[in-house]
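Protocol step 4 of 6: structure prediction from sequence.
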Amino acid sequence: MLEFRPLQWQDKEIFTRYYSDSPVHYAEYSFFCLWAWRHAYPIEIAFSKQNLLWFRSGGVIPGMFGPLGNWRDNNINWDNELSQFERGSVIYDVPADLKNLLDSRENLRFLNDRDQHEYIYSSKDLISLKGKAFAHKRNRVRAFLDGYEWDYFPIKREDFDSIMEFQEKWRIHRDATLNQDEADSLLDEDEAIKEALNHWDEFNFIGGLIKIEDKIIAYTIAQELDEQNLDVCFEKAFAEYAGSYQAINYLFLKNLPKTYLYINREEDMGEPGLREAKLSYNPVLMLEKYQLEIL
């Protein structure tokens, strides 16, 4: 049976190796994402004898997840691997290709978990904003660029305090329209943002911010998932500046020091407004996630 233990900072190197070996790189399961949200969602990990890494989460939404590692390896005996889980066990966020690999087994049932699909965009599309499909975004960006006296800067260490001051103002403004659970979730996000700033160099983050009258009105923090994919971890703006969200997205990607083919903007968690916003940017791919139930 699998032997689970709490995720530790010292696991970063080995965890990242298993993550890199995985055929699918979900933004949600980079080491940073699991580490940064560990207070709200405590993580335990376990290594199987077939060179796969499984993990489970406690906290608000408990569950079993994984695996990480090269699950396409033909030498893996899946009957043995899955025998480590009891009947009735549910494993969340199983990639579509792994589902197809296991689909013929009669003792497994799969459910497409649309709320957890990750949105993948062409970076070229988001920078050029060409064509009818991006007309609205293009107009919003132009309205911001022409309507305000703004400056764009890459995030530097001396900006960290100002970013957290911005974040507190942004959160307090949002709190007025949220229920208690939603407000608590924003506090958890604040802790994750602090983790990003505290470990900026260890994760090689890339960030950008917009200032108006020397005050931050928008920022983005992102991390590289692999050579082709960049994950936008956090993106905030004061919405009273018309087009600010579209502008920070555009300016950040336009000023990246390195070119990525794809931008991962993570899942919508079933929130109608967030889903509408993410779809409006015309994703080129959805990274599907399935729930696997062992019968």
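Step 5 (inspection) to follow. The first strand starts at residue 5 and ends at 6.
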